[in-house]
Structure formats: C-alpha cells, structure tokens
C-alpha cells in the first residue's frame, strides 16, 4: 500500500515548519546565476524584453489609472489628490530596502528585521517604519506571479502576518527594477498597484501606478520613478510629476528613488544618467525645491557619495547576492561632462564617503571565487568540462591521424569548430549587454580568456597522446575520457574561469559575474530614516554580516525567528540632512 501522506501540523493558522503546505508558498533557494539553464532562459527573456519592450510597455496604459499623490504623516495616511486638509507635522519613520526576492534565508532575514516593532542597533532604539519603500527588483530572476509569491510576497507575509494591534497598518510602496520589467510589469502591477486595497501580510500597498509621490512631514517628499532599462520617462509619468511639482517650492526637500544608481553607471556609460538628469532639470529644478538625496538599489551593496548639497546612496542589500564595493571610484562626476545631452545640468563632483562591506573586505571576498564558484555552480562547471573534453578529443583526433589532402581537412574541421566555440564564448562573456561601449580591454580580456581555455585543451591533448588510451579500440577512449579527463577538466576550467574573473574585475569587466557566481548571502542591509519634527532627516544604515539559515516557529508575531539572533550593526554612523 502506498505510504499515507503525513498530516499538516499547524498551531491555529500559523505554520510550525518551513513546509509549503503550511506556509502557502515554497521557500526558494538562492538563484544559481551561473546555471546554464538559467543563463539561457534569462538571456532569451532579456532579448525579448529588448526587442519587444516598447510593445510590452504598460506605462502608457497607466494614464487611465488614478494619479493620486500620497501624504504620509505620523499615524496618518491619505490622498493629497482628494484631501487638501492640513496634517500636523511631526516625527515619521520610513524604511528603505531594495533587491529582495532571491533566496528565502537572505530575503526573510531582512523582511524579519523590517517587521520587528523596533530594533536596537549600537545604542540606538529604532522603531519600525510606518512606511516601507522598496527600491526595485522585488523578484529574481524574472517576474511572474509564482516567483513573486515564493520569493517576495510569501517571505514578507511570514515576517509580518498581521497588522499592528495598535496604530495604522504600515504602508508599502515599490519602484520596479529591470527584473520586475521582464514581463512588461504585468505581475508587478497586479501585486503593488491596487489603489489602497492591496495587502502583503501586515503591510498595505498604496500606490495607484508603477511610480509614486509621497508628501512627508516638514516639507519632505519622496518621489519614486519608473524608468525602463535604457528607456525614457513616459508622457503620463511626466504629467503626473508635473502635477506633483506644482505643489513644490523653495524650501521643499526631495528624495528621488530611481530604479538604478545611474550616477555610478554613468562613469562607464555616458547615457546612463540622461533620464534622471532630464527629470531633475525639467521637473524639479524650476520649482526651487532641493534634491537632497538620490536613493537607489540595483547594485547589491551599500555605498554613499557626498556632494556639496546632495547625497547619493546605493542600498541594494535586501537579499540578492553581494555586489563588490572595492571597484567603486573614489570620485564621480555627475552628470559626466561627456554626456551627449545638449542642455545637461552643470557637472558636480561627489566624493566616496562609505561602503558596506568595506573596500578591503570586498577585495578579500573576491578571492573566494576559487572555491565558491566551483562549489555553488556544479552545472556550470559541468558545461566547462564538456567543452574542454570535446576540444581535447577534437585535437587528439586531428593530431593522431597523419593523412593528407581533402581527407585531412575534413578530419580537422571539428578541432577548428571547437576552437571557434571556445574563443567566441570567452569573447562574448567579456562583452555583456551592460558593458556599455566596447573598448580594447573587452577584446583583449575576452579573446585572452578564450585562448587560455584552448591552451588547457592543448595541454590535455599532449598528456592524452602520451598515455596508452589512444590505442584502445573505440569507444573505450571516449569512455575513458568521460571517466578520467572530464572531472579533471571541470576543475581546471573552473579555476581558470575564477582567475579570469579576478583579473577582468581589476579592469572593470565582468565585475558582476565575479560575485554573482559566488552567491555570497551575507552583508545585507537597509535604511531606517527618521524624519524629525524639527525638519531634519537622520538616516540609520543598518547592516547584518550574516543572514540566518535556521528558523524556529513562533507562537505570535513573525511566523519564524532566527535560531541564532541576527547581529546588527550600523554600516556607517548616522547621516543627518536638513
């Protein structure tokens, strides 16, 4: 008889274990970014998004949706479009988090911290934000209803299953990132754009479009923009923010939340900052309001650049793999002088102020590529081993048969084919779509990596020809190659790949791949911001070096708590703006 299914054990309506049947979603492992299956599938989606992005762009359709401007104040949330009543100023706490929706352990660790009534960090008692702003990429690797359920909505609902017993329900606003865009914003709009009727656990979604404006106490504003990767700000969005700008004036202080830190990206891609510069120059600047802070995720670390009257902060530690900080420039010019925009804003210099992890720690972590990439990407290593084995066999086939004429050329065609595949693979790896303008360094590093890969196959061919395997009857040589040469070539090719990434990163090439392949789940963080009654803004950057891996069910509050308490720290001392 078939074994009976074990009954689901729950305490009331709360799960007692990380069981999908009890939780209503499946806790996912971290995305294996170098998996050949994932790489090929994501590549197809990215190509389709690039080719048909304009046709899938749902921002124009949002013109038919309500264009509410939100107001958040202590113990109050409302709609400025329908309510112009004065709301008393006071103290308001706002959280900012970006790049969630990867593996359960890292994502839930951050969601759990965001959900707690208060956090004690280095002597500071920091209450939970009444407002949570999500800075983009709420799901990985591509957007879909099920991915959102398993990688974002489920973990956040488990962290805060019910609204607070006292006081209003905390509110949630979200900016779509490039991963949210891969389905044309379909799943994003269904989840977040519910006109105040949507709920994610104890949080309430408030926005009526994929972008938003929030008036805060004491003349502070948060503006969340939606800019599709490599595209423009659409007309309905410009009209919406023009309405917002009509309420701004001298003395107002603005925080802009774009989906990516284009101020850093513009150092390599001079077009990256154009849309954001246009937005500031044409919408905000004419009002006389000051843009005090630009705040973004997308790069999975914490970094701050400081200017004369503006802060530029990247805070993408919501759960996705760590992105390095040691290659960040010491100074950046924003916008870059070489921008193609005819009427660009005057350029200003911003100095590097802080990063988490520190540059020294990030550099040390980069050397983990030699053991983390092989350990965490077995399928990718298998692909490298297959290419190595096929290349070696092709070389052996060509070298072992001394023949002449057309027959020789036919026999050696597989060898030339494998060399072409190996070299072109290295070439295209060094020139991804995010590389910006192709430069000589991309050619040299890519072709050099491909040549080194072929070099390993040449050494393998020499060793093979000096062993007695070649004289064995077919198919014994092939079987021996699979059993003996294949695993050795996997290791050799994997270590060569790690070495290449370390060298390439020194020249600003494949920096993302160096850390994506390692899948480091530590060094996460978010911002807790206090908008004081005196008009000052104090930013507390909260970091956690290690995320939790083991969880215990709880009788109340969050469904699960870390078995070992999370050790919190400030990523840098609090930043005060006024």
TrEMBL record:
Source domain of life: Bacteria
Residues that span the membrane, as ranges: 380-399, 411-430, 442-465, 477-503
Region listing for Disordered, in residue ranges: 1-22
Keyword Transmembrane listed: yes
UniProtKB keywords: Membrane, Transmembrane, Transmembrane helix
Cross-referenced InterPro entries: Metallo-depent_PP-like (IPR029052)
Protein name stated in the entry: Metallophosphoesterase
